[in-house]
UniProtKB/TrEMBL annotation:
<feature type="domain" description="Glycosyltransferase N-terminal">
    <location>
        <begin position="16"/>
        <end position="53"/>
    </location>
</feature>
<comment type="similarity">
    <text>Belongs to the UDP-glycosyltransferase family.</text>
</comment>
<dbReference type="GO" id="GO:0080044">
    <property type="term" value="F:quercetin 7-O-glucosyltransferase activity"/>
</dbReference>
<dbReference type="Pfam" id="PF26168">
    <property type="entry name" value="Glyco_transf_N"/>
</dbReference>
<dbReference type="GO" id="GO:0080043">
    <property type="term" value="F:quercetin 3-O-glucosyltransferase activity"/>
</dbReference>
<dbReference type="InterPro" id="IPR058980">
    <property type="entry name" value="Glyco_transf_N"/>
</dbReference>
<dbReference type="InterPro" id="IPR002213">
    <property type="entry name" value="UDP_glucos_trans"/>
</dbReference>
<keyword id="KW-0328">Glycosyltransferase</keyword>
<dbReference type="Pfam" id="PF00201">
    <property type="entry name" value="UDPGT"/>
</dbReference>
<dbReference type="GO" id="GO:0032787">
    <property type="term" value="P:monocarboxylic acid metabolic process"/>
</dbReference>
<protein>
    <recommendedName>
        <fullName>Glycosyltransferase</fullName>
        <ecNumber>2.4.1.-</ecNumber>
    </recommendedName>
</protein>
<dbReference type="InterPro" id="IPR035595">
    <property type="entry name" value="UDP_glycos_trans_CS"/>
</dbReference>
<keyword id="KW-0808">Transferase</keyword>
């Protein structure tokens, strides 16, 4: 009878516990991937930090993914509670490891113990915890494969830092100039704690049971092939955008996001009053801050184009918008603090994405067929911008002037190049082809589909 009761209550799905790095650009892809695992029959629990969990709506979590929390040691204020990046990362590791252990123990005595820890590769300590409990450890590399491969090279001392001789040659990558490298490499000494963090992804990756990369094979096949030779098993499981845009038959999958900013829902209505391809959508993601001067040039450059502008300016950046801009633009511009980006990119009114080239923004635009103007700010964005312009040929990258600013004339020139004329048409056509390949990759028989099935089947057969 006891056995029968156990059979009735025990959850026989393999259980994956996802631990994202606590920032918007890392939460989004891992949440989408967790949802995909859940749709494939695994039980997925998503554990953000306590601080983040307090800022989000519980209804964000539809589609079978459950929620739990760990601590980053900054439960009251999150990142702003720490003294520095270094201090935050240390607190995250100490409190994160301790509370992850507690979480694993809690589930151990429940009807669904954890079988696999899916951790952001920025958190290598989560793999140590997984191994301590004999669990499967799957590293989730949030950024582009090329970027990860450059960091792999740097971690293993194969790039002499600071890089002084260019172009840099890495197998599977095009020759790279300094400005094409991730900023931590080309701006010597910039953000040492973050640089250490991105390199630390490889400190124990050889012990991970899976290396999952948030890309699709066709997009970066040369880099994927090169990296697979040195670190394995490497599986490409992207793109991780909401499945309603990728999978046939999924009509509405809207309860997908976990926004760390307050959503402004007026943009879709505004977009629907604009002709197809007439709007430039502008966003710099969740972290980048522009100088007041740069905001001024950007604003007046956007105005000069005379196109419709949908501009996401986070509330902390709003005071930098030049006086008179909003009134001078009238109905030509809509400024929103935060929107559902994939919904906007999928809208037929959008003709071009003016972006900082964060990896999520880049891959979302590729998968939704939107050409780009790339204005990278830091971290991996510079390398993404290189690929957008020269490898995938879906956009144009801005040039800095002698003062390190992108002038209003340059902004106007680049937007016109994408929105008008023959070159723009080619970029749009290329973007459409990438969209098709992205969809193919996650459909039955596609490269990511096969990788995800391989991962799911391995986890399911080795579950405790
Ligand atoms: C950060 C890094 O900057 C980025 O380069 C790295 O690859 C991931 O972590 P972030 O700067 O926020 O991320 O950029 P990005 O990667 O583009 O992620 C932003 C996410 O927020 C995207 O998924 C985007 O769809 C979403 N977003 C952005 C919104 O939902 N609404 C908005 O208004 C703006």
């Amino acid at each position: 009878r006891e056995r029968e009761e156990e059979m009735e209550t025990k959850d026989y799905r393999a259980h994956v516990l996802a631990i994202p790095y606590p920032s918007q650009g890392h939460i989004n892809p891992m949440l989408q991937f967790s949802k995909r695992l859940s749709s494939k029959g695994l039980k997925a629990t998503f554990a953000t930090t306590l601080f983040i969990s307090q800022t989000m709506k519980p209804e964000s979590f539809g589609s079978g993914v459950e929620m739990d929390t760990i601590s980053d040691g900054c439960d009251e204020g999150g990142f702003s509670e720490a003294d520095s990046v270094d201090d935050y990362l240390k607190r995250l590791e100490v409190a994160g490891s301790k509370t992850l252990v507690e979480l694993i123990r809690k589930y151990k005595t429940s009807s669904h113990p954890i079988d696999c820890i899916l951790y952001d590769a920025f958190l290598p300590w989560a793999l140590d915890v997984a191994k301590q409990f004999g669990l499967i450890g799957a590293a989730f590399f949030t950024q582009a494969c090329v970027v990860n491969y450059i960091y792999y090279y740097a971690y293993h001392g194969r790039l002499s830092l600071p890089v002084s001789s260019v172009p840099v040659s890495i197998p599977g990558l095009p020759l790279l100039q300094l400005r094409d490298m991730p900023s931590f490499i080309y701006v010597a000494g910039s953000y040492p704690s973050y640089f250490e963090l991105v390199l630390s992804q490889f400190s124990n990756a050889d012990k991970a049971d899976f290396i999952l990369v948030n890309t699709f094979y066709e997009l970066e096949h040369e880099a994927v092939d090169s990296m697979s030779k040195v670190i394995s098993p490497l599986l490409t499981i992207g793109p991780t955008i909401p499945s309603m845009y990728l999978d046939k038959g999924v009509e509405n999958d809207k309860d997908y996001d976990l926004n760390l900013f307050k959503l402004d829902s007026t943009s879709t209505k505004w977009l629907s009053t604009k002709p197809p391809g007439s709007v430039v959508y502008v966003s710099f993601g969740s972290m980048a801050n522009l100088s007041i001067n740069q905001m001024k040039e950007l604003a007046w450059g956007l105005k000069q184009t005379n196109f419709y502008i949908l501009w996401v300016v986070r509330s902390s950046e709003v005071p930098k918008i030049p006086d008179r801009f909003v009134e001078e633009m009238g109905d030509k511009a809509l400024i929103a603090n935060w929107i559902t980006q994939t919904e906007v990119l999928a809208h037929e009114a959008v003709g071009c994405f003016f972006t900082h080239c964060g990896w999520n923004s880049t891959i979302e635009a590729l998968c939704l067929g939107v050409p780009m103007v790339a204005m990278p700010q830091w971290t991996d964005q510079t390398t993404d911008a290189k690929y957008v312009e020269d490898v995938w040929k879906v956009g144009v990258r801005v040039n800095l002037d002698e003062n390190g600013i992108v002038s209003r004339y340059e902004i106007e020139r680049c937007i016109r190049q994408v929105m008008e004329g023959e070159e723009g048409k080619v970029m749009k056509e290329n973007a459409r082809k990438w969209k098709e390949l992205a969809i193919e990759s996650v459909c039955e028989g596609g490269s990511s589909h096969k990788s995800i099935d391989q991962f799911v089947s391995k986890i399911s057969t080795t579950m405790s």
